[in-house]
């Protein structure tokens, strides 16, 4: 088993760094920005719709209680994290096809995140020392068909990592 060890917090910090460094293909001048608040992300977006474009947050939503594998030094563990990205329903941002163009841009951003950044790739250079995989489990867009003034792209990743055994 690997001897390097890490935590979900360290992996989330690396994911944030990777996302901040990405240059989107569309609206390259308006890259990904870290959500500045501490309240619920969706509430902040609702109150800051005009400036919320591509703001994101990453939060842990589940962690395995039992290690997958363990020895006296490290345990192989997993955690689920959620990447949320805001997209205001300001149709002029997306083009003449409005909601279809917005959906296309969101899909383009997802491919960029999983491809170029390596966030969703197994054994990639995006992994921190002690992490052995990051795999996208689900993707959905919230707010497409309702009266909200914004949409949120939700990507769920399963992270595999080694963690030091507590003494």
Summarize the structure.
This protein has 167 residues and is an alpha+beta fold. The chain has 3 helices and 6 strands; from the N terminus they run H-E-H-E-E-E-H-E-E. The chain has a single domain (8-164), classed as Alpha-Beta Plaits (2-Layer Sandwich).
Task: Tell me about this structure.
- 23% of the residues lie in helices and 33% in strands.
- The protein is α+β, with helices and mostly antiparallel strands.
- It has a single domain (8-164), classed as 2-Layer Sandwich (Alpha-Beta Plaits).
- It is elongated, with a radius of gyration of 17 Å.
- The protein starts with 7 loop residues before the first helix and ends with a strand.
- The model has no long low-confidence stretch (mean pLDDT 85).
**Judging by the overall fold, what is the CATH architecture?**
2-Layer Sandwich
Mean pLDDT: 85
Which descriptor suits the 3D outline?
elongated
Could you name the ranges where pLDDT drops below 50 across 5 or more consecutive residues? none
Gyration radius, rounded: 17 Å
Number of helices: 3
Q: CATH homologous superfamily?
A: Phage minor tail protein U
Distance linking N and C termini: 18 Å
CATH topology title: Alpha-Beta Plaits
Largest beta-sheet details: 6 strands, mixed
What string, H for helix and E for strand, traces the elements in order? HEHEEEHEE
Structural class: alpha+beta
Helix content: 10-25%
Number of discrete domains: 1
Number of strands: 6
CATH class reads Alpha Beta
Strand content: 25-35%
